[in-house]
Amino acid sequence: MVNKPNVTQQVLDYFIKQIQNGNWKIGEKIYSESRLTKELGVSRTSIRAAIQQLVGIGAMESIHGKGTFLRSDDLSSLGLGKHNKKEYDYVDLSSLLEFRLILETDSCYHAVKRATKETIEKLHYYLQKMKESIGSPDEFVQFDRLFHEEIIHATGNKLLERSLKNAFAQKEERLHDFNEMFGYKDGIYYHTLLLKAFEAKNASRAKRIMKTHLQKAIDDIYYENNTDAEEQDILEQI
């Protein structure tokens, strides 16, 4: 399929231009999300996704309550000069998330009912590793995946477990795409809530959180894929 040009990539190109032209200095705070959203005419989702890509290679650092700072002007990890802008297969990614929404929502309820002490310990471990992997996309995706697989494993249903693992194996690239587009914050937030629900043995709450987590991901993809054409026009003029 032919994918729509990615707005996030165009925002990233704008960031790269600011860095390479010396408009943003190492150690300085970059423009706020509000200012960037207003000046570029794009969504906060696109702004945050572009920032996360630069955080991932160590070029930027986001500090809660303070903003985002430029830490390095080394952008070599982005493969500049290859002229191969990333385009995302939104339909395939949405299909994976919809499959997971159907499979994991009810499974999460049963997993809480059957969870053991070992289940809780593993979820703790995977969540901690996710936090430690912020800025390292491959590791973050790996532990995110293991967190969800452990929940399905707790159901004791081998068919469910095989189904999720097969989906992850077949759509590995889509997991990385989602992290690349939307970063780490939501993953940490919802996984923390899920762990607390498991600890409290609150199956209904865990089910609601899982549903909200995956539905938000689907909504984010829909919004990103259906960003107004006006965003494209504005960015092309910059």
TrEMBL record:
The keyword Transcription regulation applies. PROSITE patterns: HTH_GNTR (PS50949). GO terms for molecular function: DNA binding; DNA-binding transcription factor activity. The keyword Nucleotide-binding does not apply. It comes from the Bacteria. Residues 5-73 form the HTH gntR-type domain. Keywords: DNA-binding, Transcription, Transcription regulation. This is FCD domain-containing protein. It comes from Iocasia fonsfrigidae.
